[in-house]
Amino acid sequence: MPGEIAIGIHDLSIASTEYVLTHATLAAQNGAPVGKYERGIGQLSMSVPALDEDIVTMAATAAAPIVERHGADRIRTVVFATETAVDQAKAAGIHVHSLLGLPSATRVVELKQACYGGAAGLQFAISLVHRDPAEQVLVIASDVSRYDLGSAGEATQGAAAVAMLVSAAPAVLRVEDPSGLFTADVMDFWRPNYRTTALVDGRESISAYLQAVEGTWKDYTERGGHPLGAFRAFCYHQPFTRMAHKAHHHLLNCCGREVDDAAVAHAVGHTTAYNAVIGNSYTASLFLALAALLDNADDLSEQAIGFLSYGSGAVAEFFAGRVVPGYRAHLRSAAHRAVVSRRHDIDYARYREIHEHAFPADGGHHPVPHETTGPFRLAGLSGHKRIYEPR
Ligand code: COA
């Protein structure tokens, strides 16, 4: 932990979408064996945003209960991590700031480095709180992952947001020093500005991810981090949940440990519960893993949790967090389970319609039909401006 002050996650809240498409439906459409999805990549279903939902509405939905519980008086910074930005200039967090009625004396900024942005936001927030422990930082990670219809990446789509209140004397998780860092210039996954769907070299991305696991762990241990055996569980970025198993398998190998499936399942098992049914939420995925672990595991008080954030391109970070005794009283487990269970199943035709939807770029007035039953919605696009409203 930085200095003598314990800093970390004081509260954590997740949100997702109105709709869900099962992998059984996708498999029936494209002829793939459903076992390839359910067991091969570890995905059962994917969240699909309604036409009036996006990264802003999910972010505001995730953050609203945090502001409701703690107030906004101490929040002086909002960090919004995403790789599916809705504007090239304006930070999406400003829309959230407005929807939640946060004070004007706030700095709001957007961060990007593929799926690593959320972990970067958390680390930057810790530095800000270290400078002034009276301040809190609202870190939001929100993304909609989209690949071309019929592509290999299609089965790994998803959408979610995680909001975290970072503060001194946190109630849930203390984030510790040191961090292990790794950057390498690889083109494993990217999205040029002129595309709405990402491009991915799937096999390259898996091997780049594993190389990053090795690189971050090496730097982490060289900087005096905990030995492998000190960790109770590991939260990995999960582009698909089998990746967490592959990553941990690789880490055990690198450490010269005996690898057996039971040891891997013990380390990552609980962390995949939300990602398996929500799909890849890019920046939010690592923290959905944390939410699932906290919501589903037996008491983890004072246990060390390892975090591996990987963002294609590629930047990665390994760090430790220690669970704060009494954390269970602060969790939102019932609300998180409802985020998953409240979604409505859609058929392939509806999914395809949503996937192919695009706003006209003519600057006209384009209202969006009412679909979401969440608390915030995208009302439309008018004069090239996105209009958001509470529902
Ligand atoms: N039952 C069980 N498992 C099956 C199966 C079946 N019927 N059919 C295939 N599988 C397994 C394969 O053996 C493979 O497992 P392995 O990786 O352990 O060998 C897995 O399912 C996937 O099969 P594969 O043929 O490799 O699938 P694919 O060519 O469709 O690609 C991804 C899978 C993950 C590479 C692809 O979905 C992708 O590119 N996703 C995006 C990755 C990403 O987001 N990267 C960026 C961030 S890290």
TrEMBL record:
Keywords: Transferase. SUPFAM superfamilies: Thiolase-like (SSF53901). InterPro entries: HMG_CoA_synt_C_dom (IPR013746), HMG_CoA_synth_N (IPR013528), HMG_CoA_synthase_prok (IPR011554), Thiolase-like (IPR016039). Signal peptide: none annotated. Gene3D superfamilies: 3.40.47.10. Pfam families: HMG_CoA_synt_C, HMG_CoA_synt_N. It comes from the Bacteria. Residues 7-167 form the Hydroxymethylglutaryl-coenzyme A synthase N-terminal domain. Residues 180-252, 268-325 form the Hydroxymethylglutaryl-coenzyme A synthase C-terminal domain. CDD domains: init_cond_enzymes (cd00827). Belongs to the thiolase-like superfamily. HMG-CoA synthase family. NCBIfam families: HMG-CoA-S_prok (TIGR01835). This is Hydroxymethylglutaryl-CoA synthase.
